[in-house]
Amino acid sequence: QVQLVESGGGLVQPGGSLRLSCAASGTIFSVNTMDWYRQAPGKQRELVASITSGFSTNYADSVKGRFSISRDNAKKTVYLQMNSLKPEDTAVYYCHEDIPAYGAEYWGQGTQVTVSS
Fold first, then answer.
1. Rounded CA separation 1/94 (Å)
2. Could you tell me if 46 and 60 are in contact, meaning their C-beta atoms sit under 8 angstroms apart?
3. Which end of the chain is more exposed for a tag (fewer CB within 10 A), N or C?
4. What is the pLDDT of residues 54-107, one digit of tens each?
5. Contact criterion met (CB below 8 Å) for 107 and 22
6. Residues 6 and 95: beta-carbon distance below 8 Å
């Protein structure tokens, strides 16, 4: 069964850090682009960061210089290191795996990140 399972979310003060993990199973993983999205209440789900099979990365302007995405293909895990967190980063964060050649995509269940004093 295909599964993406996020972990590492929680409550943190402004300026703090969190490291999110997403463990994949049931997919090849290493040939696919992995993404982190987030969605705040009443807001559109937005792409935060992506990493390709060739380890090329892209970030939303709002998180550049603060967040870093990485992947470990042996562990089938993608990470999101989140530094200098702001209250506006508060959202549910979702791991996403895209397989466009097969018209398929997979989503994790989401993990809550709350930045508040």
1. 18
2. yes
3. N
4. 999 999 999 999 999 999 999 999 999 999 999 999 999 999 998 888 889 999
5. no
6. yes
Residue 21 one-letter amino acid: S
Core vs surface per residue 47-65: b (16+ CB within 10 A) or e: ebbbbeeeeeeebeeebee
Query: Between the CA of residue 30 and those of 71, 75, 97, 101, 113, what are the distances in Å?
Result: 9, 10, 10, 15, 27
